[in-house]
């Protein structure tokens, strides 16, 4: 009996070692177990946070979990921070969260219902909480964007804060991307000077998953290309002088590596200004796995050349070195 138990323990030990690439000082990839896609990364109160899509079967994507870490290496799971049970208009496909802290509140923007036309209920919603780990409640009681504008499916939202403090919603699936000026309490939009609400900023080859950040005064606009269920999903970028572009596609910087993983895309960025480090957090599919929803959240360092071009990212199983926020 003793022999059987110790053999079982030994077997369990070997299995977990074989499945994990984590070492004490290295994050390993994936960052945490489970199918999690479209990771939105943030830093709040000296902790790293990741808010991904729960990438189960379509109809089971009815809640969001979040993950927090002090060092990019050890991650704590916060379950069901948002649930469709708390959003009366949402019932499936809770996707691609985007989070922002404003006036001591945390606003979680999410897609729900994967609407295919203006006749369906759903789109982009906003939830709010006093804490990054939720629980989040519906901020509006209805979607913030519930129709197609300029051809953009209302999914894949990102909230961008410009230098002057103005927040913008940048979003869109189906190969179109819009930008809109959020009002002060995130209950709607302020029109642009010409009276319009949604301006299209779609670059060449854009599909979905927009992201924006400022570096050395330039606006870096990034997005996903290809189909998210296939191997060729990837990330490309453009650089502009304002959040409105024009954005001329520069190149792809993240894609599959047939020796490592496929379908690498839908990302976000953590910037550590003090240490001048940029991390790209993205999802990818294990080699040989063709199930569209089998996506795992991973991390790599992202670097620039002397001209400010983003260098191609190498996808790894080691991930990044442990790094505290401060
Ligand atoms: O996770 C659902 C969808 O897959 C997202 O909205 C897309 O960006 C793609 O990653």
From TrEMBL:
Family according to the record: Belongs to the glycosyl hydrolase 43 family.
InterPro entries: Glyco_hydro_43, Glyco_hydro_beta-prop_sf, Glycosyl_Hydrlase_43_Enz
Record's keyword terms, sorted: Carbohydrate metabolism, Glycosidase, Hydrolase, Polysaccharide degradation, Signal, Xylan degradation
Signal peptide: 1-18
Site (Important for catalytic activity, responsible for pKa modulation of the active site Glu and correct orientation of both the proton donor and substrate): 156
Full protein name: Arabinan endo-1,5-alpha-L-arabinosidase
Annotated GO biological process: xylan catabolic process
Organism encoding this protein: Pedobacter jejuensis
Family matches, as SUPFAM superfamilies: Arabinanase/levansucrase/invertase (SSF75005)
Single Gene Ontology MF annotation: hydrolase activity, hydrolyzing O-glycosyl compounds
Superkingdom, taxonomy of origin: Bacteria
